[in-house]
């Protein structure tokens, strides 16, 4: 039986609930909560008494360090953001595209990555072309097949939030480079659940929210940016992105030489505190171990759910299947209604794209999966 990788007592709700929803609002473990409480009590509530201007500027240093290890990248290329959309929304104006360029994205991808480009297409001669994520076709192949000489940008989530489809970013890089296209990767549904090596992906930017698989609280996100992007001036020149923010130069615009240039302003330092601790905890487990743990639970889930008519979007061993997001559909039962009935039994997951989306996190164990399967069995017999 597959056991939890983390001490389940760190998550009080697991005493009487089954939480299979880390892909939505993730649980926050006790170590991160304790660190946030300590910061609020001992620093934040006292204003500048225990945080000087210089300490405020450098408060994200520890987070950049652990994020560099998470992304296998230089901390100088790690940007701390208030949210992933803060940077994703700037890309249409950061990249210089040729007239009539095509933007490739996925029709069912998370809107944060598609909306900026759709909006820009209203004002500029660019075309947004959508590729469908289908169970009977490899999504990476579909995107590569859609690339042509007009492709200016490929914007995609490396793991699709609704289906768990895994995109082979390295293959996309090679195809994008052949036509000179930019590549933007949203790793929100991958970072913390599997390996995300930005140093070898060669994308222009890899962005992730902090409150899902990374186990943080809302109000902080991360990005690993390329050397070429570091030469760009942010479209939103926040005061904290200056080379010396507390110089308070109101008459000119200077930027930090590293990825700090993309940080906008004073932000949720308590969330930075918690995310730093939660990423440290995940790194101590090891990415390969986390991924294998999820795959074991996924095999148990898919094999069991099939007995009651629930079929996965991808077979658990398929190349395009992520190990930690399982999307299940039934020919006769409504996913949304089933999710509501599961909630009545304190089993929490989501309905996405007409399917049940099950998240398998390091704190989950085989007992969680068996309780879900027992509930599906009860609905089936009824």
Protein described:
With 382 residues, this protein is an alpha/beta fold. The chain contains 14 helices and 13 strands. The protein has helices at residues 30-42, 53-57, 61-71, 85-88, 91-94, 111-121, 139-146, 169-179, 198-201, 227-230, 269-285, 287-306, 335-344, 366-381, and strands at residues 18-19, 78-81, 101-106, 126-131, 151-157, 182-186, 205-209, 221-225, 310-312, 325-330, 347-348, 350-352, 355-359. The longest helix has 20 residues, at 287-306. It is globular, with a radius of gyration of 21 Å.
User: What is the mean pLDDT?
Assistant: 96
Element pattern in H and E: EHHHEHHEHEHEHEHEEHHHEEHEEEH
Please give the CATH class of the largest domain: Alpha Beta
DSSP strand tally: 13
So what's the overall shape?
globular
Number of helices: 14
| CATH architecture call of the largest domain | 3-Layer(aba) Sandwich
Counting structural domains, the number is 2
Find the structural class using helix and strand composition: alpha/beta
- The CATH homologous superfamily of the largest domain corresponds to Type I PLP-dependent aspartate aminotransferase-like (Major domain)
Which band does the percent of strand residues land in? 15-25%
């Amino acid at each position: 039986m597959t056991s939890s990788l983390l001490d389940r007592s760190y998550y009080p709700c697991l005493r009487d609930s089954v939480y299979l929803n880390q892909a939505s609002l993730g649980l926050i473990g006790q170590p991160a909560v304790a660190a946030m409480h300590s910061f609020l009590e001992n620093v934040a509530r006292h204003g500048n008494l225990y945080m000087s201007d210089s300490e405020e500027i450098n408060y994200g240093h520890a987070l950049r360090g652990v994020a560099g290890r998470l992304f296998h990248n230089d901390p100088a290329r790690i940007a701390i953001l208030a949210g992933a959309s803060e940077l994703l929304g700037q890309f249409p104006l950061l990249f210089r595209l040729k007239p009539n360029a095509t933007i490739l994205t996925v029709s069912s991808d998370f809107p944060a990555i598609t909306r900026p480009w759709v909006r820009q297409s209203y004002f500029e001669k660019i075309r947004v072309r959508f590729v469908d994520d289908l169970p009977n076709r490899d999504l990476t192949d579909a995107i590569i097949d859609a690339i042509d000489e007009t492709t200016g940008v490929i914007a995609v989530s490396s793991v699709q939030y609704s289906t768990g489809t895994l995109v082979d970013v390295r293959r996309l890089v090679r195809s994008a480079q052949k036509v000179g296209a930019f590549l933007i990767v949203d790793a929100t549904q991958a970072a913390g659940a599997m390996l995300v090596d930005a140093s070898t992906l060669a994308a222009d930017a890899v962005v992730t929210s902090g409150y899902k698989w990374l186990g943080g609280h809302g109000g902080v996100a991360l990005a690993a940016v390329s050397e070429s992007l570091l030469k760009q001036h942010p479209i939103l020149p926040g005061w904290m992105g200056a080379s010396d923010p507390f110089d308070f130069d109101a008459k000119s615009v200077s930027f930090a030489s590293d990825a700090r240039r993309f940080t906008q302003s004073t932000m949720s330092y308590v969330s930075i505190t918690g995310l730093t601790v939660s990423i440290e905890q995940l790194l101590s487990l090891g990415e390969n171990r986390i991924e294998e743990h999820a795959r074991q639970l996924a095999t148990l889930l898919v094999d069991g759910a099939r007995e009651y008519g629930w079929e996965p979007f991808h077979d658990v061993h398929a190349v395009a299947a992520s190990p930690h997001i399982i999307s299940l559909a039934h020919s006769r039962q409504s996913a949304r209604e089933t999710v509501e009935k599961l909630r009545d039994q304190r089993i929490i997951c989501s309905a996405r794209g007409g399917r049940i989306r099950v998240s398998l996190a390091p704190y989950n164990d085989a007992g969680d999966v068996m309780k879900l399967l027992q509930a599906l069995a009860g609905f089936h017999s009824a």
